[in-house]
Amino acid sequence: HLNLDNIQGDILIGMRKRAELFFFFHISNTVQFKSKLKSVILPLVTSTADLLDVSSQPTTAVNIAFSQTGLNILNIHDSLNDIPFSGGQFNDASNLGDLTTNWNNIVATLASLKSKLGSSISEIYSLQGAARPGNQEGHEHFGYLDGISNPAVQGFQSPLPGQAVVPTGEILVGESGDNVTRPAWAKDGSFLVFRQLKQLVPEFNKFLTDNPIRAPGLTQQQGSDLLGARMIGRWKSGAPVFLAPTVDNPALGADPNRNNDFTYGLPGQTTGNLTDQTNCPFSAHIRKTRPRADLGLPEKNNHHIVRGGIPYGPEVTPLESFFHKTQFERGLAFVSYQSNIANGFQFLQQKWADNSKFIHAGVGLDPIIGAAQGAQRAVTGLDLTNLSRPITLTTDFVVSRGGEYFFSPSLSAISNTLSA
Length: 420
Ligand code: N7H
Fold this sequence. Notes:
It contains 13 helices and eleven strands. The protein is an alpha+beta fold. Bound molecules: delta-meso nitroheme.
């Protein structure tokens, strides 16, 4: 039984946000901050229970999370026993395939702000996220519907067809299924991974235009749309290519009872180790990051994350489309929650998306988020007419601009342990 008054609201259900401001700050006065954490911040922090009850739902929700540096400054020296977290994301960048020359120079900004005294915090950086306008609401910048498939936490949400059901401890620290030793105050918190992922939208569209899949009966435009859908594993409407293999099916995409109801297995198939990628490439972004029956049935995958990101940056301008070149930065303010970073986000990025041999030799990297420090990447399975033909991606369409690993503590930890 989960204590929903104690768990911050963004972790399990998300704040259903149309806009979100990410505010990164340095604690410059520990004593003052600890007291403000209790008197000013804690009363504003939105719990899971606050969000569930429509009558108490706030119009503006607030959540807070701390990096290892932040906990150190608060004089919290207990180890949370999560190696990527304690090292910080910058030290993990090479494991994730990032080219750190693309990282925003947050560190230099931090240094200059550190010199400012007199207030308890100083802003380091902020990023404004916002839902895209009009009928693109809920779609990320490449145009694909997002937020369809997140795991249901056992005993909290009842799953929709095809939704993964995970032990509470796969997302929340100290709950059943999290077997790492933690300080007692960490229970009901969750590690928050933040990444600013720039998306090169006009370049992505040009790539689709230049490389249509020439399947019988498809126009050139349909062939380009099919290539994009196979890179992701879903059409722009959200319809999975596994169930709609050649053209989009918007009614399927919009139906929560059907749009996630597949395993990549054929009807009647009850075991894993699947060998077929006709309908959905092994390399497709959603198959790389959640292989479903590829690892056995029922789903034998203990690498789930709850995603809660939001797009940032402006819409593509006519000039950017015309020249197929990004001029204004846009992308995804990626957020994921998990009880263990090495098992969650880091595993998905490093062991699956960036690994050309997952799930079989020759599959190649994830065509959307796979990265090898900027090097070109070959991907197979995308061309329906020749599944072993490698397609080489000479540019990354998603570029990491940096991020950090945070811990999103329970409300009682904020009140009793972190504040004063
Ligand atoms: Fe992905 N995209 O628009 O292409 N993602 N993602 N992601 N992603 C998903 O199923 C996208 C990123 C996962 O349960 C959809 O809700 C983009 C990272 C997982 O079947 C779309 C970026 C990581 C799933 C996108 C990005 C993941 C998923 C389909 C970066 C982890 C669920 C919508 C800019 C390391 C898989 C949906 C499942 C789905 C896109 C990043 C992981 C459209 C543009 C960094 C686990």
